Amino acid sequence: MADRFTLGLLIGPVVPLPVPQLLIDSLESAQVTVASGQKSGFQLVFSTAKQSSILTTLLPAGYFDPPARVIITVTVNGWPTVLMDGVITRHELAPSAEPGQSKLTLTGEDLTRMMDLIDFTGFPFPAMPAEARIMLMVAKYAMYGIVPLVVPSVLLDFPNPLKQIPGQQGTDLAYINMLAEKVGYVFYIDPGPVPGMNVAYWGPEIKVGVPQPALTVDSDGASNVESLSFSFDAFAKTLWVVVIQEPTTRIPIPIPVPDVNPIQPPLGIRSPLPMQIKPIRGIANFSPLQAAGIALAKAAQSADVITGSGTLDVLRYGRVLKARQLVGVRGAGFAYDGLYFVKSVTHSLKRGEYKQNFNLTRNAFIPFSQEVPA
Questions:
Q1: What domains can be seen in the chain, in order of their start residue?
Q2: What is the pLDDT of residue 116?
Q3: Of 301, 241, 242, which is closest to residue 277 (Cα–Cα)?
Q4: Is residue 315 very low, low, confident or very high in pLDDT (cuts 50, 70, 90)?
Q5: Cα separation of 238 and 174, whole Å?
């Protein structure tokens, strides 16, 4: 349990600086959303007045104009966390007749927004595998402190420049996401570990590792979440099959695709049976290894039929719950206790209040162990 938290806010063109004290005093609320499989975003709301320097100086001078860079940090129990490193995409002003009740709202996205501005279609990458192409594209954004973390896939392929020279299709972000989809990978920018630094991750969505401290529910004084509920959608689980042709007889043979793999293992003992069977289409032009990577990723995504959602007070929880990592759950009963993957987290901060809404996913019932990190 923590007794307080400290919010930090930096704004600037490329290298942001701490904001004037006036902005800190005027900050009414901050909200940051981080989710697996999509862009992260933020919103800042300031209360202001007609004669405030926010409206008379900062706004006219372009201080908040897109794409001004914004870094939001929070310190809980002496442990700093970078919640967001992004850019403002728009700002809105809502004047009010009541003194001090005008609202200036800044809305923005993470730094992937800057990778989606220029269409580089046709830019050549001779004799470069996808991994090298991604590192070259990410290097353009080094001024934002972005460092690439690229996990080579089993499909590492060096195209022969005498036969084929790969060319970029679309913006950097669109092309990187397309390359990720081809091998069943994900791409996102993770802020931190210190303000101004970012990790651009291209690799498999990893659902293993050291879990975060447990979310405890229905345990009297030991409870550290305000609400937590679960749902199970049996009809969402699908058995995906890849259809191949036997070379001699040309007879189509369906091959089922397993929904677990070493980096996305079952998080419980009892895995629900699939209620649907569907073929994976659109992979005929890929190599066998590429088709296998896409099929495994698709099967793993449809396996997460157990979901949880809830709200917690960070001061009671004692730390910041992070998305894209594992977390333990206890107090929910034998079937639903155990480890979950944190699919998304929304941070909501006000003066003296820090809460998080979160969504969890899992692919099996009944934990392997009744013990989770406290």
A1: 5-110 (2.40.10), 118-203 (3.55.50), 234-302 (no CATH)
A2: 97
A3: 241
A4: very high
A5: 28
d(CA 218, CA 154): 45
Based on C-alpha coordinates, what's the Rg of the chain?
A: 23
pLDDT value, residue 158: 61
* Burial class of residue 179, CB neighbours in 10 A (0-12, 13-18, 19+): buried
Comparing C-alpha atoms, which of 261, 263, 164, 262 is closest to residue 206?
263
- Of residues 117, 247, 218, the one with CA closest to residue 173: 117
The least confident of 24-28, 109-113, 218-222, 254-258 is 254-258
Sequence-separated (6 or more) residues with CB below 8 Å from residue 87: 66, 67, 68, 69, 70, 108, 109, 111, 113, 114
pTM over 0.70: yes
Predicted pLDDT at 275: 86
Task: For residue 368, give the 3-state DSSP assignment.
Answer: coil
